Amino acid sequence: MSEQPFSLRRIAVKVYSPSLLYGLGLGAVTPIIALSALERGANLATAALVVTLVGVGSLVSNVPAAVLTTKVGERLAMVCAAGWAALGMVLGIVPSNLGLFAVGVMMLGMAGAVFNLARQTYLAEAVPLEFRARAMSTLGGVMRIGVFIGPFAATLAMKWLGIAGAYWVGMVAMAIATVVCLGIPDLETRAPVEAGQSRDGGSMLSIAKDQWRILLGIGLGIVCISAVRSTRQVVLPLWGESIGLDAATISLVYGFSGAIDMLIFYPAGKVMDKRGRAWVAVPCMAVMSLALFLLPLTHSMPTMLAVAMVLGFGNGIGSGIVMTLGADYSPVAGRPKFLGLWRLMSDTGAMAGPVLLSVLVAVATLGAGVMAIGGISLLGAGIFGYFIPRTNRRRMGAP
């Protein structure tokens, strides 16, 4: 590292602006993927399946993303990912058939796996341990801001260009992100590996065997938090509809929850750096659990709004926690490959959460499903509370 004191501000524009642009592009198209599928002849069930292809693309690409990042480096991997996402957007612009459009949607998930892994690895190497949580939480917060802005930009574009306007916004954002990524400086120094080790760390399987205690311990907490986070995006609209709220009111409630989520990422990162990861990870899961337990008790817009804001607060204080813990636990040798496994567990949870909710709703009730997800959140709080304080921070991939 440079001898002058480290400052996040010095790297902010070049490191965070691609994430802002990437989030904007993804946020622009996410709400209208299902509508685009319907426009191409899909029925409701098929349209819902097309939406899940973003997650599927990310899930199946985590391991290849780790291999690619190891071979070409973080900067070039981000360039490739943003360019690949831009090509995926093109398939939403052109009047393609449903099959080709589905390929484009899956390309977005594949690009996301590479982009997210590469930017996480870059920050893990570039930022000193004492600033790591703030760097990661800011990364998560900036991405949230982009996703929040995206639908508004898409709405403006669709007034003139129709539904394809959202994909034009996405393509332009990804194209600019590609150019900006080219300007990110390569890492001048990296954390030294132990004598006799190669920097690539060996195969993915060997890394998984070496780190199995971490992956099956704290990794289970990562599966829990990812499942809860992905499910909460489904729970709020469904519960709002079940108590008779109209779409505009539900959207307003969701927006307020998201706004609270966005506003507190930096203080959360500072607490993690100053007090420790458990001071944020455990409250994050506990607060979301409380909100989920309370949600089935709400029967009006004001009470649901209050609970939704508590849910947003709980998620917001955990901004960057998955990336921070991944960077903490990653070995210096084979860091991208370990983080690929970490993201594989995170994406598994994100895919499993809504599936579990749908099964519980089918066999019981929506309220029972929401309570069960609250139980998973409470389990995650317990896992984080047990494992995180027992970690030796000097072992945690510290540069």
Automatic annotation (TrEMBL):
<keyword id="KW-0812">Transmembrane</keyword>
<feature type="transmembrane region" description="Helical">
    <location>
        <begin position="100"/>
        <end position="118"/>
    </location>
</feature>
<feature type="transmembrane region" description="Helical">
    <location>
        <begin position="278"/>
        <end position="298"/>
    </location>
</feature>
<feature type="transmembrane region" description="Helical">
    <location>
        <begin position="214"/>
        <end position="231"/>
    </location>
</feature>
<dbReference type="InterPro" id="IPR036259">
    <property type="entry name" value="MFS_trans_sf"/>
</dbReference>
<feature type="transmembrane region" description="Helical">
    <location>
        <begin position="370"/>
        <end position="388"/>
    </location>
</feature>
<feature type="transmembrane region" description="Helical">
    <location>
        <begin position="341"/>
        <end position="364"/>
    </location>
</feature>
<keyword id="KW-1133">Transmembrane helix</keyword>
<feature type="transmembrane region" description="Helical">
    <location>
        <begin position="76"/>
        <end position="94"/>
    </location>
</feature>
<feature type="transmembrane region" description="Helical">
    <location>
        <begin position="304"/>
        <end position="329"/>
    </location>
</feature>
<keyword id="KW-1003">Cell membrane</keyword>
<dbReference type="InterPro" id="IPR020846">
    <property type="entry name" value="MFS_dom"/>
</dbReference>
<dbReference type="InterPro" id="IPR050171">
    <property type="entry name" value="MFS_Transporters"/>
</dbReference>
<protein>
    <submittedName>
        <fullName>MFS family permease</fullName>
    </submittedName>
</protein>
<feature type="transmembrane region" description="Helical">
    <location>
        <begin position="20"/>
        <end position="38"/>
    </location>
</feature>
<feature type="transmembrane region" description="Helical">
    <location>
        <begin position="243"/>
        <end position="266"/>
    </location>
</feature>
<feature type="transmembrane region" description="Helical">
    <location>
        <begin position="164"/>
        <end position="184"/>
    </location>
</feature>
<dbReference type="Pfam" id="PF07690">
    <property type="entry name" value="MFS_1"/>
</dbReference>
<feature type="transmembrane region" description="Helical">
    <location>
        <begin position="44"/>
        <end position="69"/>
    </location>
</feature>
<keyword id="KW-0813">Transport</keyword>
<feature type="transmembrane region" description="Helical">
    <location>
        <begin position="139"/>
        <end position="158"/>
    </location>
</feature>
<feature type="domain" description="Major facilitator superfamily (MFS) profile">
    <location>
        <begin position="11"/>
        <end position="392"/>
    </location>
</feature>
<keyword id="KW-0472">Membrane</keyword>
<dbReference type="InterPro" id="IPR011701">
    <property type="entry name" value="MFS"/>
</dbReference>
